[in-house]
Design goal:
Number of strands: 0
Number of helices: 26
Order of helices and strands: HHHHHHHHHHHHHHHHHHHHHHHHHH
Distance between the termini: 47 Å
Largest sheet: none
Number of domains: 3
Structural class: mainly alpha
Helix content: over 70%
Length: 731
């Protein structure tokens, strides 16, 4: 039975994912249901304003911000003001459809801009849009709107109070958790490599790239947390922070070794090595995966028993490496394959070094007294001032209001679509027709494929929810049962909106039906209009994404590909400079690796979105996928050289001339990615290959021989890319 290291991560999942999600869901339940239950008891009757109050608390509770605790309070406070103003404005202009449409245009622009502000922007944007639309559906005079606005504000304050007092129950140590997620992603990547190289399971390059992308995302999120450092902390606090930074860096280098390991395994095709792959290599990679999984648990818990288990697993890795090396010595292979296998062993040992180094770094951290430092979140003025970064905010504002930016075009698209929805709602007086625009606001995404996918999920979830909700309406249940039902359903709403959008929408619809039944508004006619409005809203979102200045990936791909190639060029330059002792900062190659892998991820994501677009707007999808794969392999080959350099004590190759010639190839590629035709002749790869063959090496210098083979692979990938560009231009 194949070992699945992901199963070893149950402890991490429980603490890092499920418990925070469940705790968040309980906060949503409290936010929504306390006003619905206790306010009517206090007032002696159920007033419609209580629904406004409950929804305000609910919308703020849905803010899914996982950063510093005080920032969530600040975000919710800002949203509280915004939704109150939006509701009051909506109620006062609803009687004139022209004013409602124009106001929706302005609000829609604002909502779309803040929606892409960050991960939590969507919740804030939808909240503002919802209360503006809810206000349009409930026209009233100014005094009444202020009265209802106070209920909205009261509900928002209630949600903020929940957030403030949930502080002790929030998962602590965000930086440590972020590093644990890197090791969790490394474990999942190893699981795929085991299937790819040691079993008969069919694993394609896309699946492997997706796992690599997940690792890069985890690393970037961790780096973002590290960037919030407060240099005014105590010496011991700073010392712990520095230790975690070193652990994060070692984790990233371990990832680089895994990528190199995969690339080297893919290049060894000797028949006698296949049996080793299925037996000894299988056990070796399984040992690495188990150790990575345990490290993920240890990184989060820092428990002594987990530290012991990690050392046991690491020792098993050491034994597995010795067995693998001994098995490889018995192979009868040609010299070329022998070099590949020897360097594979070297890479495996390098990965093990990073494992053991991480364990030592954790041990050092465990030896510091916990009472001497605080890694938890702090709700303080100092942190607040540090968190405010005027330069970053200014850059975001400049980007948002740049008329040529994708954010601005998306905002216009959303605003027009919402205005059309409000026009249909007000002009034709559709009962509860504000759901048209609300559905459109929730469904529409910056990219067509994502909008289409979410629209379909929204329709399926809504229809299924209506069917169950309709059955519930027919049951002669007392008010108390509906209250209990609402508590349960609202929990599942919060839980599944984070995990499975389609199921989340199903429970949202059931919740809305239960709410309407509790407020005496539930009728089959109203439910019918709700379904129709959802269908119209989803269709409007998809149509808007297609008609109003759509962002097609065929237009974005060349620029993203150019960026990736340029990053690969710089990456190669830094690695070769380091190899030739002309790069003083040895760590600079690793920083460039991160930038290059990030740009590769953008290219890969672009092609994935391209597949989801209408066929008639797609352009050379297969060729683009292949080009993205070439860029990813280029980065892997350069990383292989970099890891070789870190373990080499002497240099034989002089690579200045090589890079000078290869640089011209990179320039040729970046020039012709955008051009509609080939303006310059193809690079002379025969001459380049002869340059590599003339590089001097010592007979027993495995490292320099390996570097030469990697340089040849880089040339092969570059030549492949040139051929693909030529084929793309003239196909």
């Amino acid at each position: 039975m194949r070992f699945q290291p992901v199963q070893q991560l149950q402890t991490v999942f429980k603490r890092e994912y499920y418990e925070p999600t469940i705790a968040w869901s309980f906060r949503v339940v409290l936010a929504l249901n306390v006003p619905l239950i206790f306010v009517p008891l206090y007032l002696g009757t159920f007033k419609y304003e209580v629904v406004w109050m409950a929804f305000a608390a609910y919308m703020l509770a849905l803010v899914d911000y996982r950063g510093l605790h005080y920032r969530k309070v600040v975000i919710q406070s800002i949203e509280a003001v915004l939704i109150t103003i939006a509701a009051i404005v909506g109620m006062n202009i609803s009687n004139t459809w022209f004013a409602a449409v124009f106001a929706m245009l302005v609000v829609g622009m604002f909502v779309a801009l803040i929606r892409n502000w960050s991960d939590y922007g969507a919740a804030v944007g939808v909240g503002v849009g919802f209360f503006f639309l809810f206000g349009l559906a409930n026209p009233c005079d100014y005094q009444t709107s202020l009265h209802i606005g106070m209920y909205v504000l009261a509900g928002a304050v209630w949600s903020i109070i929940i957030t403030v007092f949930s502080f002790p129950f929030r998962p602590s140590n965000p930086i440590r958790r972020s590093v644990a997620k890197i090791w969790k992603s490394n474990t999942e990547y190893l699981d795929v490599l085991i299937q790819k190289h040691c079993t008969d399971v069919v694993i394609n390059d896309i699946q492997i790239t997706q796992k690599e992308t997940a690792i890069r995302t985890a690393v970037n999120q961790s780096i973002d947390l590290f960037s919030r450092r407060d240099n005014r902390k105590s010496r011991l606090t700073t010392q712990h922070y520095d230790m975690m930074m070193e652990i994060r860096r070692t984790s990233s280098l371990y990832t680089a070794a895994l990528h190199t390991m995969h690339e080297e395994l893919s290049s060894i095709h000797h028949d006698s090595f296949k049996e080793i792959k299925r037996s000894v290599l299988y056990k070796l990679l399984s040992a690495f995966a188990q150790t990575s999984a345990r490290l993920s648990v240890l990184m989060f818990t820092f428990r002594a028993e987990e530290y012991t288990m990690v050392n046991v697993k690491a020792k098993r890795c050491e034994i597995a490496i010795d067995l693998f090396e001994e098995s490889c010595k018995q192979l009868q292979t040609n010299e070329q394959d022998a070099i590949k296998i020897r360097h594979l062993i070297s890479t495996i040992k390098k990965a093990h070094e990073y494992l053991t180094l991480t364990i030592k770094q954790v041990e050092q951290k465990l030896n510091l007294r916990k009472s001497d430092y605080l890694e938890n979140y702090k709700l303080s003025l100092n942190n607040f001032l540090i968190g405010l970064k005027p330069r970053v905010i200014k850059e975001l504002i400049n980007e948002a209001f740049n008329i040529n930016s994708q954010h601005f075009i998306y905002a216009i698209r959303v605003a027009i679509g919402l205005s059309v929805g409000v026009f249909l709602f007000r002009f034709f007086e559709i009962d509860h027709g504000y759901w048209i625009s609300l559905t459109m606001l929730i469904v529409i995404q910056p990219y067509f494929g994502a909008t289409k996918k979410k629209g379909i999920e929204r329709i399926i979830g809504t229809v299924a929810g209506i069917l169950l909700g309709g059955v519930i309406m027919l049951l002669p249940l007392p008010h108390e049962v509906f209250v209990g039902m609402l508590i349960v359903v609202s929990f599942f709403v919060a839980y599944f909106l984070r995990n499975n959008y389609k199921i989340g929408v199903f429970f949202v619809t059931v919740m809305m039906v239960v709410l309407m039944q509790m407020s005496q508004l539930g009728t089959w006619q109203l439910i019918g209009w709700r379904v129709l409005s959802t269908l119209l809203g989803a269709a409007l979102a998809i149509a808007s994404s297609y008609v109003f200045w759509p962002t097609w990936e065929k237009n974005r791909f060349p620029e993203l590909m150019k960026k990736a190639i340029l990053n690969n060029k710089v990456y190669l330059e830094k690695v070769l400079q380091y190899y030739n002792h002309t790069e003083s900062l040895g760590d600079s190659w690793n920083k460039q690796r991160r930038l290059t892998e990030a740009s590769n991820n953008e290219v890969f994501a672009s092609v994935q979105r391209m597949v989801e677009e209408p066929e008639k707007v797609q352009h050379h999808v297969d060729l683009n996928f292949t080009m993205a794969g070439v860029s990813i392999r280029l980065t892997r080959e350069i990383t292989s050289i970099a890891l070789s350099v870190t373990s080499s004590t002497h240099r034989v190759l002089k690579l200045d001339d090589y890079f000078k010639q290869v640089s011209s190839v990179f320039d040729w590629i970046t020039l012709h990615i955008h051009n509609p035709s080939i303006t310059y002749s193809m690079p002379n790869f025969i001459q380049l290959k002869s340059t590599i063959s003339q590089l001097p090496t010592l007979q027993d210098d495995v490292e320099s021989q390996f570097v030469k083979s990697e340089l040849e692979k880089i040339l092969f990938e570059l030549e492949t890319l040139c051929v693909l560009i030529k084929e793309k231009k003239y196909s």
